[in-house]
């Protein structure tokens, strides 16, 4: 394994580590509808992979399968050398190492921000309450949310709620972070604050798989962009290739539609480009 | 009437203001005076009054019935604690996922169907007279025990349905969020789903408690001298219904404040939702 370390260098210039996630032949159906039709994908440590594609192309389902929130029908998922889709795997143990942030934040409304963040560290990692709280406050401080610690989620803006959800996932010190269209439910002016957080995480070397509609953001941040179309991984490569010179007709079609809808957000304009780095 | 007052309280404000309050107070007083006048002057009022509201009988039976009513209070206080626990257990049994738990789910469903389908008085009779009648050694013969147990068994069925509605009303994404953090299914239920469910079902839960409090009177049929039974004993020799009225007043003194409290909770929640809607 050590031979791999530091060998690959991504579009961002980050050095990758060992294989973090390997997905092979992943299939998933909901009733008659096959949502994922045999996906193969390998993600390395410190790599940022963006999944793009139309709604219903299978991006979210793929993320939920990696986290075992959806049982898969065929194929396998290997995380850090361990096949997590094998029978008898302790799913709770796997999920501790994989954080996920959802489109709708899914904060616990009956708990303060601090309680939201410390719940899993206290109950799952069995950290002492004091320590969990100190770590949570440190994280909140880092993401500019220190004064929100004792508030309830419904008192926060959408952008703040989503940042709290990210902090909640980070409090478990995950090796891998899955982001499921985390800005899709936000008002446009709140998108940038959330994307900036993700940019910061990427710079610190967090391994991430990001399903997103923010093409400008994907182009800026991704080491690799994967285009999903009707449950298949149709094309993947560095952002410059995918956005600049897509090989597949379907990819070109999709990008043309996105550009004409003004969602490309290139450079200075649009939410994705704000304070790029 | 309630929806009207709720509405006015919801909208409540400077428009109607103190003038509105004054008008409603005056109209209510006038209405009560008129009704009172009509009742007191209707034929048969004197007989009615001495039969149901005899001051002497009232004075002599009041202390005894109040003392007996303490037993009703003990019964429902004990019963409510166990109903809350057993009801939740039933609800959780019924929401267990997967084919393995089919028998447990089935058991919970049958139990709830049976207990909700039976007249309360039958359960009280069957357990209260039947079980001690078996003469098994070590079996309690205490009416308080069997009466309270009957109420626990009956009302747990109703309350489990209330809990279940609450659990179902918590969006599945909440459980997904909890599980994704590494919490077990049980942990997700305990820390995330059930606390939210319970908060939502407090009003219907209290409604069931009002029913439970009233039904403690059924245990008097087993011979336990609680308020209703004591009233019975006071009323029969005097051939006067005043002791029953005393008992009725005692029950109302408990249940009406609780009803008002439930109403207040519902209104408060509605107002919060209105305020929360952005």
Strand content of chain B: under 5%
Overall geometry of chain A: globular
Overall structural class of chain A, as computed from helix and strand content, comes to alpha/beta
Low-confidence stretches of chain A: 1-6, 266-277
Total beta strands of chain A:
10
Q: For the largest interface in this structure, which chains are involved and how many residues does each contribute? A: A-B, 26 and 18 residues
Proportion in β-strands of chain A: 15-25%
Distance between the termini of chain B: 30 Å
Number of helices of chain B: 11
Nearest-integer average pLDDT of chain A: 87
CATH class of chain B: Mainly Alpha
Helix/sheet category of chain B: mainly alpha
Q: Per the principal axes of the C-alpha atoms, what is the gross shape of chain B? A: flat
The CATH superfamily of one domain in chain A appears as P-loop containing nucleotide triphosphate hydrolases
- Could you please say which CATH topology of one domain in chain A applies here? Rossmann fold
Could you please describe the fold and organization of this structure?
- The complex is a heterodimer of chains A (277) and B (278).
- Chain A is 34% helix and 23% strand.
- Chain A has 277 residues and is of the alpha/beta class.
- In chain A, the strands form 2 sheets. Chain A has a 6-stranded mixed β-sheet with strand order 6-7-8-3-9-10, with helices on both faces.
- Mean pLDDT of chain A is 87; it is low at 1-6 and 266-277.
- By secondary structure, chain B is an all-alpha fold.
- Chain B has a single domain (56-276), classed as MetI-like fold (Orthogonal Bundle).
- In chain B, 81% of the residues lie in helices and 0% in strands.
- Chain B is flat and about 70 Å long.
- The two termini of chain B are 30 Å apart.
- The chains are: A alpha/beta (277), B mainly alpha (278).
- The interface between A and B is medium-sized, with 26 and 18 residues.
């Amino acid at each position: 394994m050590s031979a791999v370390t530091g060998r690959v260098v991504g579009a961002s210039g980050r050095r990758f580590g060992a294989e973090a996630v390997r997905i092979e032949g992943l299939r998933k159906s909901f009733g008659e509808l096959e949502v994922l039709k045999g996906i193969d994908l390998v993600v390395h440590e410190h790599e940022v992979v963006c999944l793009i594609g139309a709604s219903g192309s299978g991006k979210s389902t793929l993320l939920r399968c990696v986290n075992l929130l959806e049982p898969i029908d065929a194929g396998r998922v290997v995380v850090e050398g361990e096949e997590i889709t094998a029978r008898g795997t302790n799913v709770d143990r796997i999920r501790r190492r994989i954080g996920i942030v959802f489109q709708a934040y899914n904060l616990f409304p009956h708990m303060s921000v601090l309680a939201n963040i410390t719940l899993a560290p206290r109950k799952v990692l069995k950290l002492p309450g004091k320590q969990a709280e100190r770590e949570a406050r440190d994280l909140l401080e880092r993401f500019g949310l220190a004064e929100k610690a004792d508030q309830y989620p419904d008192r926060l803006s959408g952008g703040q709620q989503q940042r709290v959800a990210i902090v909640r996932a980070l409090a478990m010190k995950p090796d891998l972070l899955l982001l499921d269209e985390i800005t899709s439910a936000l008002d446009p002016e709140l998108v940038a604050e959330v994307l900036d957080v993700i940019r910061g995480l990427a710079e610190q070397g967090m391994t991430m798989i990001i399903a997103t509609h923010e093409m400008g953001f994907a182009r800026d941040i991704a080491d690799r962009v994967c285009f999903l179309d009707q449950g298949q991984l149709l094309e993947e490569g560095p952002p410059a290739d995918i956005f600049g010179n897509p090989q597949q007709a379907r990819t070109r079609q999709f990008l043309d539609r996105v550009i004409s809808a003004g969602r490309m957000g290139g450079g200075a304009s649009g939410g994705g480009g704000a304070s790029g780095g | 009437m309630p929806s009207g007052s709720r509405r006015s309280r919801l909208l409540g404000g400077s428009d109607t203001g103190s003038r509105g309050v004054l008008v409603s107070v005056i109209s209510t007083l006038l209405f009560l005076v008129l009704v009172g006048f009509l009742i007191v002057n209707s034929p048969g009022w004197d007989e009615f009054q001495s039969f149901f509201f005899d001051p002497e009988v009232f004075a002599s039976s009041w202390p005894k019935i109040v003392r007996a009513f303490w037993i009703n209070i003990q019964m429902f206080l004990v019963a409510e604690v166990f109903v809350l626990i057993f009801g939740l257990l039933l609800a959780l049994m019924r929401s267990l996922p997967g084919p393995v738990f089919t028998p447990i789910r089935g058991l919970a469903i049958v139990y709830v169907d049976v207990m909700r389908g039976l007249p309360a008085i039958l359960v009280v009779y069957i357990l209260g007279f039947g079980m001690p009648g078996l003469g098994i050694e070590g079996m309690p013969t205490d009416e308080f025990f069997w009466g309270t147990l009957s109420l626990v068994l009956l009302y747990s069925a109703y309350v489990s349905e209330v809990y279940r509605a609450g659990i179902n009303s918590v969006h599945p994404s909440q459980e997904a969020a909890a599980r994704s953090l590494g919490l077990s299914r049980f942990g997700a239920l305990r820390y995330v789903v059930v606390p939210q469910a319970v908060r939502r079902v407090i009003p219907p839960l209290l409604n069931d408690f009002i029913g439970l409090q009233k039904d403690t009177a059924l245990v008097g049929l087993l011979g336990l001298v609680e308020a209703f039974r004591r009233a019975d004993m006071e009323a029969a020799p005097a051939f006067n219904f005043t002791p029953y009225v005393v008992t009725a007043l005692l029950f109302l003194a408990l249940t009406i404040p609780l009803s008002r409290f439930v109403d207040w909770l519902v209104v408060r929640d509605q107002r919060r939702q209105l305020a929360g809607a952005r």
